[in-house]
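USER: Write out one fold?

ASSISTANT:
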Amino acid sequence: MALSFPLSARIALGAVLVALAALLADRMIGAALVERLERDARAVIAAEGGDGITARFRTGNGWATRHPTLSGGENLDDDTRARVARGIAALPLVGGVHWARLRHRAAATSAAVETGPFHCERDVEALLSVRVIRFAEGSAEIDPASGVLLDEVAAALKPCSGSIVAIAGHSDAVGDAAVNLKLSGERAAAVREALIARGLPRDSMRARGYGSARPVEGLDPNDPANRRIEFSVLSIAPPVPTPVDTPNAG
């Protein structure tokens, strides 16, 4: 006797088969894309002297992505790492790039406590050399997509606890200068609050807006690339231990 399925069941089964076929096709296309992007990324890494750096074009769940995670190369200088990241970000079809969590920074900073000053400012510059903290148009509201970047900035600044960190907001010269000055200050203040929310001490950060007064060297003052947030460490001083922190103090 032939089995007969209700029309609704046949429609549902057809939808499942179509979805499975689409998933399989996506996996095949994604694998080809990943192979191509990883090959191009390896060429950039080799050209920039980025020995030890790898670019992963898959998410944690194994899905193909155009937004690679860079890792490795902990012994390379920040300039080399930044050049590699910029080169990969400039490849066709590649979206924004980001580095894996900054475990290597923590290790480097631990050594720096004994051997020299912290490198927080350089670490943040390296992060912001390939990505920018984004805001809603004409607003000081931080784009949620910049949350990961702010996480990394906070992680890079935490080893400098006890120092004064200046957060500067800048704008291009398009529009009313007074409005630009006010907005740049509000954006710097918004970044300060976001970093406080991520565990940085409020009294260690200073936020100020400069409007269009300090364009990037070599850029037209009207260039949108002048809209940016910059960080600088004004004093480098590790926190002084109190008697509570010091064993056998008394």
Notes: The longest helix spans residues 7-47. Residues 30-100 form a domain with the Histidine-containing Protein; Chain: A; fold (CATH 3.30.1340). The longest strand covers residues 64-71. Residues 39 and 55 are 10 Å apart (CA to CA).
